[in-house]
Design brief:
Strand content: under 5%
Order of helices and strands: HHHHHEHEHHHHHHHHHEEHHHHHHH
Shape: globular
Distance between the termini: 33 Å
Radius of gyration: 22 Å
Length: 415
Amino acid sequence: MRPLLRLFLKALGILVLSGIIGFLLMTAVYLLPVNGMKNHVALATDLLLSGDEPYIIKGYPAFRLDMFTDSEIMGEAIYDGSESIITKAMLIPYKDYPDVNETSQKLLAALRGEDTPQLHTKARYWHGYLTVVKPLLLITSYQNIRILNLIIEAVLAWMLSLLLFRKIGWGASASWLITWLFINPVSASFCMEYAIMYYISTIATILLLSGFVSNKNLPYYFLLIGIVTAFFDFLTYPLLGLILPLTVWLLLEIHHSQAWPKNCLIYSFFWLLGYAGMWAEKWILSTILTDQNVIADAISTIRFRSSRTAYDQRISYWEVIEKNLNVLGNIPLVLFSAFVIVGFVIIFIRYYKKQIRKNELLTFLLLTVSPFIWYFVLQNHSAIHYWFTYRTLSAFIIPFFNCVLLPLNEHRKDG
């Protein structure tokens, strides 16, 4: 009991320290001048004129870009109000124009310097992405950030695929490539909002495969992944930040699968502690340091986002699942469903023939249900923002296909 208590207390210390570091980072980035950022954002005027919901390929929601949120992010980055640095760092305000419908148009109005008495904030989020976006916009344009995303994401995909092949085998590498395609690397690189969890998930897994994390420090590692996710992410598909490295860890420990279920629960608990704890620290800090009750706003939002209504209408859990699956489009959805059905048949044939251990099957199946639990808890959010929350299903794909393709790893025991 004492080692577990010591582990938990150390985790709480890391969590508190992370909140302090997050506060300092957000405060520091608001010291940067914004004129250069405004000039670079203005170069994206043509893109902003395309509206809040442009499509790379029309008719396929998976190729829908979220210019609504990216416009919010840029609006936050260029805001230069008279509030104190701490107030801006905690509330993250940007100019709102109630008579303008689209957020991209509101950003253009802010760039033109139009007056507005109204500000909009989402103080319950850390908005940690601004620690990267503001410096980038200081030196380059939004279009160049897209190109940079495209290059970095491709390099990370290649690095992770290569490491998985070398350390584990073909099955793990192929499972990642299927997941990568499902995330949709094109739209993920063209939207700053979509790119965040891609970076966190892949970098965390690459570090794990590269041997930077010892087994005894894994609880703290997953704690830090949760903390970083809460700091940077805008509630897109955060679950991948847990499930991708956790699945890879299972494959690295394939010869010790007896301990899989227990350790999975422990690491998941620490990830959740870091994720929820970092969120809570933001609410507390913002409430203490500003004149807004951010704690009350956060609690109200949690109730709304976990409600069983969307657009003032009652929704069922199965409607939420359907909306997220339909993002794929008819033909990809049929192919995906067929692969899943065949995959389940293969898994249970192998289990019947005792080619897969009970602990292994149980653990993989537990991981595959995680996105469906997520959808159940956040039904409102998952129904309204289905065009990007569908990526939460990648947390099903990575453990599922690794379970199906597990025999392809067996020739690599030197990992």
